[in-house]
Amino acid sequence: MERPLTEHIHPNRPALNLKEYEAVGGYAALKKVLKDSSPKQVQQAVQDSNLKGRGGAGFNTGMKWSFVPMDNAPRPKYIIANADEMEPGTFKDRLLLEGSPHQLIEGMIIAGYAIQADISYIFLRFAYKDAAKILRKSIQEAYDAGYLGKNIQGSGYSLEMYLHTGVGRYMCGEETALLNALEGKRATPRAKPPFPQVSGLFGKPTIVNNVETFCCVPHIIAKGAEWFKSISKSEDGGTKLYGVSGKVNKPGLWELPMGVTIRELIEEHAGGMKNGLKFKGALPGGASTDFLTEQHLDVKMDFKSVAAAGSRLGTGTMIVLDDATCPVGFVHNLQHFFAQESCGWCTPCREGLPWVEKVLLSLENGEGKKEDLDILHMHTKFLGPGNTFCALAPGAMEPLESALKYFADDFEKHIRDKKCPYHN
Amino acid sequence: MLTPDEKHEIDHEISILPHRKAAVIEALKIVQQHRGWVNDESVGAVADYLDMSPAEVDSVATFYNLIFRKPVGRHIILLCDSISCYVMGYQKLYAAIQDQLQIKFGGTTSDKKFTLLPNPCLGCCDRAPALMIDEDLYTDVTPDKLAEIFSKYS
């Protein structure tokens, strides 16, 4: 089984430095591209590989790049790595950032070449202190070796790279809010269109991709689009970093062919549920994805299959709900997070989420009424897609709506018994 | 007034950006790094230096939860209170911290040693529950480990 992204990451050994990375074939893909390929050819190769964005939205990466104006384009153009990883339950990019920084940098330079970007940023969340240190060192190594800066490897192509470390707020992970944060503003979302590909950072053409997405790029260039598709078990190309957290025997993170089943992840890789506990459900791809339950255990973890089951692959890092954890308390915790992280820019999200949180808290405290369930159902529509500026509130409603559907008995029992059946 | 060191660091940020205002988050981070927190006077100083109004600077400073507009202790404890840590029982850690340090979320110990803040997800959900003190990450934390962890800080 091939693990291109994590092959050279070992938990007990520091990340490869530039020389070591070159010794295992690193930067060969970049050199190949600079020598043999036009920017459009790189875009096409990535599009053909069917690489879909690993940050959660799942859009074809090569196609996203193809929207950037190329001839007589406004300058400078920007390429940005979204390393803000703040989706609760998500811990996959940390491994790539700390374990293989040059893989990310090489992927970004190739992507930068494909859209003829002039400046690149890595937008890193504050909590990843070790990643910040190693990225600073690695970026400097890449400059010293002539992979960054003016006239890279004598090709005539130039790219600057900067590391930006954040100061909190989940909103910064939203593509357009991230751009506002980089511009020194409040991280509120922007209206689309115009899309960032045309008018992004400081009003210039900009591509923002997730860390894992960039890390796939050198391998696609080195081994080809067909190879990338062949290592997947689904129609989406490539491997995926899958994670499992919650009360399983071996919580962790694994690079596996895209499209392994939920059952395989939980039973084989995460070692099954902890003693005496049963699987009740899971959020397949972070806090803002719909619950899947026991009937979905054989669903393949790829974008299309998870969507067909009524949820989203999201980040591919799963949070497991066991039968001894209260689903109402679980969803209350999520809504507390979303209410707190709402940027306040649009009314349904700013006003609706705190209301949802309070209703759930009163249910959890045994003070809920039957009508509260109607209020919750109503909010899943009011805060759903199309009614808000960005995807935060609709994302928040995904676990709520699905919990109301799959765990209706639990919600009703809280109201009937006037207490939480799990906490007493 | 900004110190020469602060100005020097902010100037570097301005040099790689298309206009001065864009450096405001970096400037706030720099000031906080030197002074521990960002008081009203610091907001005014940053505003003057970047040709902004104090209100504009404050609207940014108050948006980001890790820019501190109130005094904090010498060390910041960030306790993850989001979903994987909820499932794995961060509540027990919170209770133990309240007991040992006599502070709730948002509070600072009377000796000004620790400030305790909730934090959504530290990105190590497979090793939950987790907390961070300054730059140090602690994972799979249990209440009985807390005293030893706290003793490392002065």
Descriptive labels:
heterodimer, A: about 425 residues, alpha/beta, Rossmann fold, Ubiquitin-like (UB roll), de novo design (two linked rop proteins), four-stranded parallel β-sheet, four-stranded mixed β-sheet, 17 helices, 8 strands, about 45% helix, about 10% strand, globular, B: about 150 residues, alpha+beta, Arc Repressor Mutant, subunit A, Glutaredoxin, 4 strands
Short description:
The complex is a heterodimer of chains A (424) and B (154). Chain A is α/β, with parallel strands linked by helices.
Account of the protein in words:
The complex is a heterodimer of chains A (424) and B (154). Chain A is an alpha/beta fold and 424 residues long. Chain A folds into 3 domains: 18-230, 3-Layer(aba) Sandwich (Rossmann fold); 239-322, Ubiquitin-like (UB roll) (Roll), CATH 3.10.20; 327-417, NADH-ubiquinone oxidoreductase 51kDa subunit, iron-sulphur binding domain (de novo design (two linked rop proteins), Up-down Bundle), CATH 1.20.1440. In chain A, 43% of the residues lie in helices and 11% in strands. Chain A has 17 helices and 8 strands. Chain A has helices at 18-23, 28-36, 39-48, 61-66, 92-99, 101-115, 129-144, 175-182, 211-223, 225-230, 262-269, 303-308, 327-341, 347-364, 370-382, 392-406, 408-417, and strands at 78-83, 119-124, 160-165, 206-210, 239-245, 252-257, 279-283, 317-322. In chain A, strands 3-2-1-4 form a 4-stranded parallel beta sheet, with helices on both faces. A 4-stranded mixed beta sheet of chain A has the order 6-5-8-7, covered by helices on one side. In chain A, helix 7 links the parallel strand 2 and strand 3. The longest helix of chain A is centred in the C-terminal third of the chain and has 18 residues, at 347-364. Chain A is globular, with a radius of gyration of 22 Å. The mean pLDDT of chain A is 97. With 154 residues, chain B is α+β, with helices and mostly antiparallel strands. Chain B folds into 2 domains: 4-63, Arc Repressor Mutant, subunit A, CATH 1.10.10; 75-150, Glutaredoxin. Chain B is 42% helix and 12% strand. Chain B is built from 7 helices and 4 strands; from the N terminus they run H-H-H-H-E-H-H-E-E-E-H. Chain B has helices at residues 4-15, 24-35, 40-49, 54-61, 83-87, 90-101, 146-151; strands at 75-80, 114-119, 131-133, 136-138. A 4-stranded mixed beta sheet of chain B has the order 2-1-3-4, covered by helices on one side. Chain B is elongated.
